[in-house]
Each structure stands twice: as C-alpha cells, then as structure tokens.
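stage 2 :: seqdesign
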C-alpha cells in the first residue's frame, strides 16, 4: 500500500477488528513513520454519531486547549486576528474563545453546532489568521490532503492542531489511541511524519506534547513550548482575558437583534442582565 504522506511503499503491520465487526489491515511506512489503515470503507457508519460516546474527555480537553491557545494566539497575532475552528464539534471551543474575546468561528461537516450558533464559517469571514483543528488528523485518511485543503479554504498559512504521536515502531495493539471500537481513528503520525508534512507544505513546524503548529511565521521552538506548557499557559491565559473584550454579551445582543428583525421582538433587559451575570 502506498504511503499517503511520502508515497513510499508501506508494509503490512497488523490486523484488527474495528466497529466490532470489520477486519482492518494497518500499514506502516518506515520512510516517514506514518501508520495508516486500509481504505476506511466503514467511516460513514462510524460517523453516525459524530462525537464518540467514549470521548469522556471532550469538555476537559476543550477547556485545557482554550487556556493553551489563548496566550499563543494573543502573543503571536495580537488583538486583531480572525480564527476558525475546523471540525469544531458542538462549538464549545469556539464559544470559549469568543468568551475570552477572540474573533472565532466554527465549521464541522459531521456535527451539529450547539454552542456557537450564529458564528459558522462564511465566505464573508475569509481570510482567517489561523485555523485550529483539534483531534482531527487521526480521523482523516489523507492528512496531507486535509491540511493543504484546509489552509487553502481558510486562506491562511497557520494551522494549530492536536493529535497523539508515537515514536519509533508502531505501538502494540493495546495503545489507547487506536480506538478500534469507534472506527474513527485511521491515521497515526510520528513527529517526523509531521515534520515531513511541514516541509512539503513549505511551513515551519512546532510541537509540544500533543499540540502542533504549521505556520509560515518563525518563532523560537522554546517560546512555543513555553506558551503551550500547562504550567505557564494557565496564568498567561489571564492576559488576553484582561486585554480583550469578551464577546459573550455582544454576541447575545447581536443574535437577539437578528431575531428581533425577523420576528419583531426585542431582547429584554432582564435577559441581558442574566447574560452579564453568567459571564461575570
């Protein structure tokens, strides 16, 4: 099987059952370190529920990521950036970032936007300063194609993503990140895989833990690690919260004004007061 990243010949590594019923073969490329499933014919079935029931870390992960991304985006791009969360799930991350004060938008082909309604992607919002795509790369059969298309669609040269990497030989089949039961994880990268991708895209690559960034900007790798380190990012995330104006109440007013124009209603002062209390 040809490697989706470097086009070298990938060798059969192991077989496993996905979705508790389909036998799937996995292939490993010794050249770039990419591990991929066979062509995932089961994905439509796997995505009958966009968010896997086993993803109990969704809320905690979004809160943690918002604290890591807030200082990184603020110190890299300042106050005026416009951002897009690709494959944004229920919209929780977009809402968290707008609550801090970032001009953030949402898109997801498979999931319903529940928490950031009214802030979906539109052509009027292009170009974006940067795109985020958390826990996405392992879901796409061709990470190279996905990254190139996402950067092009968002008219940006910066994408920040999260995915768990392995090092060396593919992990044993008990590695938790395979998620065979959900059938949704089909691509697995090493850091050298991601560096290869960055070189092909003509972008610099920065990494720390499970957080990675491709960008045409040049920064110190140590600065990236510092800004995204849990110990440093938590107190640093207070700075953009103080420097930026939260969009919680303005978003409420904007949405209610849009509803008023379509229904003749008006937002009540009680509703605005309640929104203000909740954001305090």
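stage 2 :: out
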């Amino acid at each position: 099987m040809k490697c989706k990243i470097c086009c070298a010949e990938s060798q059969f590594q192991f077989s496993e059952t996905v979705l508790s019923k389909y036998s799937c073969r996995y292939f490993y490329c010794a050249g770039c370190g990419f591990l991929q499933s066979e062509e995932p014919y089961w994905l439509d079935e796997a995505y009958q529920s966009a968010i896997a029931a086993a993803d109990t870390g969704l809320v905690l992960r979004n809160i943690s990521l918002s604290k890591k991304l807030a200082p990184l985006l603020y110190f890299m791009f300042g106050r005026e950036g416009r951002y897009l969360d690709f494959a944004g799930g229920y919209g929780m991350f977009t809402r968290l970032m707008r609550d801090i004060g970032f001009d953030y938008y949402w898109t997801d082909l498979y999931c319903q936007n529940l928490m950031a309604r009214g802030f979906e992607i539109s052509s009027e919002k292009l170009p974006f300063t940067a795109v985020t795509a958390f826990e996405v790369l392992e879901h796409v059969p061709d990470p190279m194609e996905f990254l190139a298309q996402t950067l092009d669609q968002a008219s940006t040269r910066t994408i920040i993503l999260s995915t768990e990497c392995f090092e060396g030989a593919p992990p044993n089949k008990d590695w938790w990140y395979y998620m065979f039961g959900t059938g949704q994880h089909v691509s697995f990268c090493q850091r050298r895989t991601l560096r290869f991708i960055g070189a092909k895209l003509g972008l610099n690559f920065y990494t720390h833990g499970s957080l990675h960034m491709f960008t045409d900007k040049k920064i110190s790798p140590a600065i990236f690690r510092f800004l995204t380190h849990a110990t440093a990012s938590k107190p640093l995330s207070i700075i953009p919260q103080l420097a930026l104006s939260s969009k919680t109440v303005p978003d409420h007013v904007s949405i209610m004004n849009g509803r008023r124009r379509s229904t003749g209603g008006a937002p009540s002062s009680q509703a605005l007061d309640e929104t203000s209390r909740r954001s305090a």
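stage 3 :: structure notes
- The two ends are 55 Å apart (CA to CA).
- The beta strands are 11-18, 22-28, 35-37, 82-86, 103-107, 130-134, 158-162, 187-188, 204-208, 211-215.
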